[in-house]
C-alpha cells in the first residue's frame, strides 16, 4: 500500500508510526527513499504530534545537499515505500468492535481536525505519548561516524617523528578513536605521519582537531585530510 499523501495528517501519521522503530525509510542508512519522502513534505512535522517523523526530518535535512548521490532509485515515488497496510485508529473509544482496518483516508491516530475528541480519547492519547517518551528516553540512536586518513607533516628530516606521533595520539576527545599509522616518504629524507582515525560527526570537528595537532609547533608543520568516508 505504501505511504499516503504527506499533505494530510494521515500521511504524516503513517510516516511517524513507520519511523518509531526505524532511523531511515529503508535499510540502515540514508537513501533515495528518504530523499523522495523528504521532498514530499512541505514543512517540518510537528515534533509534539509526530516526534518520530520530526526527528527523521531533521536528520535527513543534513543530507539535502547529497540527495542526488544517495543510493536507490530516484524515480520511485515516496508512496511506494512504507507499510503494506495501515494500522487501526489509536482511539479505541471510537473504533467499532471487531471491525477490520479502515481505508487510508479514514485512519486518524490523533483525532480528525473536523471531529472533537472526547475526554476519554484525549486522556488515552496523552497516556500513550508519555509511555512513548519514556520508552524513547531509554534508546539511543546510532551516532553518525566517519573514518578519516590524516597527513601530519614535520618541519624537516631532523624532526623526531616518534615524538610527533605520541603528541598526536595524546589528543583525547569524546567521539575520537585513533587507528593505525605509518610513515610515508616525502623526499629529501623527510617522512610524514599518515594516521587513521574514526570520529563521531556530531562530537568531533576536523578543523578543531587539526588546530590541536598544529599546536605541537616544535614538530608539526601542517596537516591535511587525505581521505574521509562515512561509516
Give an overview in words.
With 231 residues, the chain is of the alpha+beta class. The protein contains six helices and four strands. It has helices spanning 9-18, 32-40, 51-61, 119-137, 161-169, 206-214, and strands at residues 145-154, 176-187, 190-200, 220-230. Strands 2-3-1-4 form a four-stranded antiparallel β-sheet, with helices on one face. Strand 2 and strand 3 (190-200) form a beta hairpin.
Write the layout of secondary structure elements.
Elements lengths: L8 H10 L13 H9 L10 H11 L57 H19 L7 E10 L6 H9 L6 E12 L2 E11 L5 H9 L5 E11 L1
Antiparallel strand pairs: 1-3, 1-4, 2-3
Helix pairs in contact: 1-3
Main beta-sheet strand count, sense and barrel state: 4 strands, antiparallel
Shape descriptor? elongated
Q: List segments where confidence is low: pLDDT < 50 over at least 5 consecutive residues.
A: 87-106
Order of helices and strands: HHHHEHEEHE
- Classify the helix fraction into a percent range: 25-40%
- List how many beta strands DSSP finds: 4
Amino acid at each position: 500500500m505504501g505511504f499516503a499523501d504527506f499533505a494530510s495528517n494521515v500521511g504524516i501519521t503513517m510516516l511517524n508510526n513507520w519511523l518509531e522503530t526505524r532511523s531511515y525509510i529503508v535499510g540502515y542508512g540514508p537513501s533515495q527513499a528518504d530523499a523522495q519522502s523528504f521532498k514530499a513534505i512541505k514543512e517540518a512535522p510537528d515534533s509534539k504530534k509526530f516526534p518520530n517523523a520530526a526527528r527523521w526530518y531533521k536528520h535527513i535535512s543534513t543530507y539535502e545537499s547529497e540527495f542526488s548521490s544517495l543510493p536507490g532509485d530516484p524515480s520511485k515515488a515516496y508512496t511506494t515505500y512504507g507499510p503494506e497496510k495501515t494500522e487501526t485508529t489509536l482511539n479505541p473509544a471510537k473504533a467499532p468492535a471487531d471491525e477490520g482496518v479502515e481505508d487510508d483516508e479514514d485512519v486518524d491516530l490523533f483525532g480528525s481536525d473536523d471531529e472533537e475528541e472526547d475526554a476519554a480519547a484525549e486522556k488515552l492519547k496523552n497516556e500513550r505519548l508519555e509511555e512513548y517518551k519514556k520508552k524513547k528516553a531509554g534508546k539511543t540512536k546510532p551516532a553518525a561516524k566517519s573514518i578519516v586518513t590524516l597527513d601530519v607533516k614535520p618541519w624537516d628530516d631532523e624532526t623526531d617523528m616518534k615524538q610527533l606521533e605520541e603528541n598526536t595520539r595524546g589528543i583525547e576527545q569524546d567521539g575520537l578513536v585513533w587507528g593505525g599509522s605509518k610513515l610515508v616518504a616525502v623526499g629529501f629524507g623527510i617522512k610524514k605521519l599518515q594516521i587513521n582515525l574514526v570520529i563521531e560527526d556530531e562530537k568531533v570537528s576536523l578543523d578543531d582537531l587539526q588546530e590541536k595537532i598544529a599546536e605541537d609547533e616544535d614538530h608539526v608543520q601542517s596537516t591535511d585530510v587525505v581521505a574521509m568516508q562515512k561509516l
